[in-house]
Amino acid sequence: MNLKKGLSSIFPVLDSDKRKLNVINSVMESAQKNHDVINIHRHDVNNVGDYYCAPHLYFEVLKDKYLDISDFRSISKKRRNNWVENISNDSLIIGGGGLLNLRHFEMQMKLFEQLSVDGKKTVIWGAGHNEIKSKNTGAFTNYNVDIKKFGLAGTRDFSMKNEWVPCVSCLHPIFDKKFKTTQEIGILFGKVSTKNKKLQNKLNHFPVSSNTTSLDEMVSFIGKSNTIVTDSYHAMYWAILLGKKTVVIPTTSKFYDFKYPPVIASFDNFESKLKEAQSYSGVLEECREINNIFAIKVFDFLNL
Questions:
Q1: What is the DSSP string of 234-282?
Q2: Beta partners for 136?
Q3: Could you tell me if residue 303 is left (phi over 0), alpha (psi between -120 and 50 degrees) or otherwise beta?
Q4: How would you list the strands of the sheet with 263-264, edge to edge?
Q5: Which among 52, 102, 207, 234 has most CB atoms closer than 10 A?
Q6: Does 136 lie in the same domain as 242?
Q7: What distance in Å separates the CA atoms of residue 89 and residue 50, rounded to the nearest whole number?
Q8: What's phi and psi for 263, nearest 5 deg?
Q9: Longest pairwise C-alpha distance within the chain
């Protein structure tokens, strides 16, 4: 018996799997209501994309009504109990972000699916698949939950057989700003690659930034670049919204199914792919219109 298993048999709260199962069971054993609404997403203040991909930031009726999808495994009993209480008492807006087909969120998503079947009002808004296994990244066909079982569902993956609703972050007013292009290429690292010192040193002759800075810094960096090279989903998305040529280094399936495709490359060969990159016009306006139309459906469904 290893140390973790030994301790968890005496102190179950120390074991993450048991904590998660206890929370899931607590929700399933609770009376389910639709008193108010809560927006569930990965509320990570250290990841700009995760933080700004949530509808509660863009609609007054949802202001301050959010819950971190990861709190169900928190060491803090208070945070776990708060998670159970919010899930049980409120209707659920789930998204945005890569919440589907990712192990870290699978238990939560299957719980939300079951709650929807049992009568809970549920909405998926701008979430998408995030499959890590390389064999699935280029030809993704199925989610790990049945989207049809949710009350309303709009996902950010264009080719899936349901309503396409791109990330709601397009509604942020920062994208109305005008930027002057001052650099040909900008490399914008995701959270993991930011910690890769070898990669950082290899590419230090390029202007670089990351999705661990701030929204202002990240969008300004994109705005002053003619071409963005990135392994961050939201850097890709925001670059396309701003009409930038975009090259992506995929880390999961999420990069392969936006309506306006970027060039796919790697950090080893992206320079040879730069000439293939193209810009798109009118994407910002399209994505905003789709989200505003979807919002009307959501608020009508939830009686808000």
A1: HHHHHHHHTT-EEEE--SSGGGG--SS--EE--TTTHHHHGGG----SS
A2: none
A3: left
A4: 208-210, 183-189, 225-230, 245-248, 263-264
A5: 234
A6: no
A7: 25
A8: -80, 135
A9: 61
| Same domain (yes/no): 177, 137 | no
**Containing structural domain, residue 159:** 15-171+287-301
Decide if 8 is inside a domain: no
161-173 b/e (C-beta count within 10 Å ≥ 16 → b): eeebbbbbbbbbe
CATH of the domain at 183: 3.40.50
- When divided into structural domains, the chain yields a total of 2
Which alpha helices (H) appear in 179-232, and where do they start and end? 197-202, 215-223
Q: Which residue from 190, 94, 181 is spatially nearest to 143, judged by alpha carbons?
A: 94
Q: What is the pLDDT along the chain (304 residues), one digit of tens a residue?
A: 454 444 444 444 446 888 999 999 999 999 999 999 999 999 999 899 999 999 999 999 999 999 999 999 999 999 999 999 999 999 999 999 999 999 999 999 999 999 999 999 999 999 999 998 755 566 677 899 999 999 999 999 999 989 999 999 999 999 999 999 999 999 999 988 988 999 989 999 999 999 999 999 999 999 999 999 999 999 999 999 999 999 999 999 999 999 999 999 999 999 999 999 999 999 999 999 999 999 999 999 999 9
The answer to whether residues 137 and 249 belong to one domain is: no
Instruction: Answer whether 86's CB lies under 8 Å from 108's CB.
Output: no
Q: Are residues 21 and 145 in the same domain?
A: yes
Residues 43 and 143 in one domain: yes
| Tokens at 304, concatenated | 């808000």
